[in-house]
Amino acid sequence: MKKSMFIAAIATMVLAGCTKDESIVEQQEIGFQPLAYKASQTKANVNVITGATYGTDAPSFGLFAYQLADGLNFTDDIDKAKLYIDEKEVSYSTTDGNWRTNPKSFWPLQGSLTFIAYSPYSEKGKVTHAIIDVVDANQSPIKASVLTINGFQAGTEGQKDLMWSKLSKDKTSNGKINDVIQGEIKQEYNGVPILFNHALCRIKITAKTTADYSDFATYKIKKIEVANLEDNATLTVTDDNATWSDPTTALGTASGRDMVFDFFAPDAEANYVTLNSTTASAVNYKSEEAAGNGLLAIPQTLDANVKLLVTYTMTVDPDGAGIAPAVVTEITKPVTLNTQLVSLEQNKVYTLNLSISANEILYSPDVIDWTPQGAEYAVPEV
């Protein structure tokens, strides 16, 4: 009896010893490489991503992932997909130069993953994702990936560059992405490609004078307000298509009959934009003055109430020598936008070019003709 128990123990030890490390499939961590679609490297603390690279100092982003078994694909078998990663934050690691979740995520031993992302992660709490029933263009019921970002406000949320990703489908490992510049590979990234689209639009403004008035006067842009632009809307991304609901609140605060939002409002005359030629000068949005990235706004149709309120000054040197006191005139003019710009669309930059003209004083000299006296006068003979 004791002998048989001893043999069993030996057998157990042998079986345990037969389990070798090389027979275990090592789980690989999931890495990411985010890209910004159709949009230079970001600058630290700049809200707008202005290039085709999601910079290493860009905000962290949120991510979902769904798993499918071997032999299935997300397009045809979406109804069988199971949630694998539930809204984790993805951020850049300065330690090893990788984008990853915290805690780390690892590839499943079987099957594939499909990834859905949004940026920035600070919108968490407004974001939902689900695979739900929708209707296609033919009004037929289908299953689709639906990402929703509720009640986004471009005006009051610090001008965040809101973005959504195209579906990164049926991935089984960290892919290689090459950063190619002028035909030469500059860097190779290791990670799941996350291709971001800008959900908002950007408005930039330039200003100039229609002629060179520098010998006569100096023009300065003192303030530009955007009036009656709408804000606060919900973004819905169905598969790879994003739509906005109609905005529900005006951007800005009440000023007379208009809801105005300061686009350019410097606190000192030294920061006004001086116009002295027909060369356009940038009038940068207040919180992006160094970068000149413009105002972020929710895409929408513009009606006749949406306009720019442009306040500028004209300073005249009466004698042209700087001796006589300068004459300063200030005026605010409304500029209606929808006569030229009917709507604002996602992922587009709109540059509004303002022109200031002066009405030259022209003269029409005339003479009051001599009036005949009506009689002739005789004078003494000579």
How would you portray this structure in words?
The chain contains one helix and 28 strands. The protein is mainly β and 382 residues long. The chain folds into two domains: 27-198, Sandwich (Immunoglobulin-like), CATH 2.60.40; 201-232 and 246-356, Immunoglobulin-like (Sandwich), CATH 2.60.40. The strands form seven sheets. Strands 1, 2, 3, 4, 5, 8, 9 and 12 form an eight-stranded mixed beta sheet that branches. Strands 14, 19, 20, 21, 25 and 26 form a six-stranded antiparallel beta sheet that branches. Strands 6-7-16-17 form a four-stranded antiparallel beta sheet, with no helix packed on it. The longest helix is centred in the N-terminal third of the chain and has 16 residues, at 2-17. The radius of gyration is 34 Å and the shape is elongated.
Question: What's the structural blueprint in terms of helices and strands?
Answer:
Layout: H1 2-17, E1 32-36, E2 61-68, E3 82-93, E4 98-101, E5 112-119, E6 127-135, E7 141-152, E8 163-165, E9 168-171, E10 176-181, E11 184-190, E12 192-198, E13 201-209, E14 217-227, E15 230-231, E16 233-238, E17 241-244, E18 249-250, E19 253-255, E20 258-264, E21 273-275, E22 281-283, E23 295-297, E24 300-301, E25 307-316, E26 327-336, E27 343-344, E28 349-356
Parallel strand pairs: 1-12, 13-28
Antiparallel strand pairs: 2-3, 2-5, 3-4, 5-8, 5-9, 6-7, 7-16, 8-12, 10-11, 13-22, 13-23, 14-20, 14-21, 14-25, 15-18, 16-17, 19-20, 24-27, 25-26
